[in-house]
Amino acid sequence: MKRGKFITFEGPEGGGKTTQAKRLIQRLRDAGFEVVYTREPGGTELGEAIRGILQHDAIKEALTDESEVFLFLASRAQLVRNVILPALAEGKIVISDRFADSTTAYQGYGRGFPVETMIAMNAFAIGEAIPDVTLLLDVEISAGFERLAVRQKELFEKADRIEREQREFHERVRNGYLELAKRFPDRYRRIDAGREPHLVEADVWKTVNDVLRG
Ligand code: TMP
After folding, report:
1. Considering the domain boundaries, does residue 106 fall inside one?
2. Which residues of the chain have pLDDT under 70?
């Protein structure tokens, strides 16, 4: 059977990745495709447990930045072997809300670990699971933070550990993604996510159609 397509959503916080991923999945299913949705960190039992540790200070001991990298990678390695590669082998479309590039952008460009090291560690974690297309939902940090603030007010969400980081960190993350888009032009598509959601959705749909046809 022909290998399915692997589509990842990436970008700084506040770009509407989760909303756009869900809308894309709906459109694909309406068009008759079998779609598997995953999110990072998470998507497996181990991954969800790791997500709890990373986002809600579930352990009392302070997490070192190095440990954080390994936790993201452990979650990813599990997701790749147990969910992503089997689904692709069955010809399904896999859509992941964040993937390997999040570690390069956040822990590499954001926290300052060597970018080449993050890329090499990711390569070990993901093996054959290289995305066919990465949709970079790019948004200026000020706009992203406004949207996040509204969301948090609405949902009475507590800002998670990473979202509390200062704005400069998120600027480095955003610029890191733009660097990655330049470095991997074959798989990256930058989409301006500072616009109305329906306009972003239309661009996402067009891009994905090109990939499915190609
Ligand atoms: P989000 O998916 O709701 O945006 O939250 C995930 C958070 O985890 C977000 O702040 C980005 C961060 N993250 C990393 O720092 N490194 C990673 O490898 C991944 C997958 C996420």
Report:
1. yes
2. 57, 143-165
